[in-house]
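Thread amino acids onto this structure.
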């Protein structure tokens, strides 16, 4: 798995009471990782319609949170026309994982032909990927 980022901002769970009065224990922040469901860890991928034929055959983006709790919402977005557009949203499961689906179709209903910047957003952190769709 590729580390997306380490959660260095807010604590991901509340501080717990310590055995020592006046002290609290702050749990380690969550760390986030990603990989493709086909095992690749490449941040730049090309998905050709001639190879995959239908979107259901494309690998999904698997995002993992360690530790698994608390549950997190993960957003997959792509950039087009200077704006971010949400492509998929999911919540991590009991194992701390979520699978996000890429859609290779453009607004005209045809397989896209071009390169797009994607980002996965989770816990205030971001991972950036580049995906090229081709005929």
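Threaded sequence (135 positions):
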């Amino acid at each position: 798995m590729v580390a997306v980022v380490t959660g260095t901002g807010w604590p991901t769970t509340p501080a717990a009471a310590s055995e020592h009065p006046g002290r609290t224990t702050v749990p380690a922040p969550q760390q986030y990782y990603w990989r493709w469901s086909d095992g690749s860890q490449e941040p730049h991928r090309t998905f050709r319609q001639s190879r995959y034929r239908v979107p259901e055959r494309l690998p999904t983006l698997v995002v993992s949170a360690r530790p698994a709790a608390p549950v997190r919402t993960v957003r997959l977005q792509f950039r087009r026309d200077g704006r971010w557009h949400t492509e998929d949203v999911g919540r991590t499961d009991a194992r701390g994982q979520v699978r996000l689906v890429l859609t290779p179709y453009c607004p005209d209903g045809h397989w896209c032909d071009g390169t797009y910047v994607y980002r996965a957003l989770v816990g205030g952190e971001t991972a950036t990927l580049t995906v090229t769709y081709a005929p």
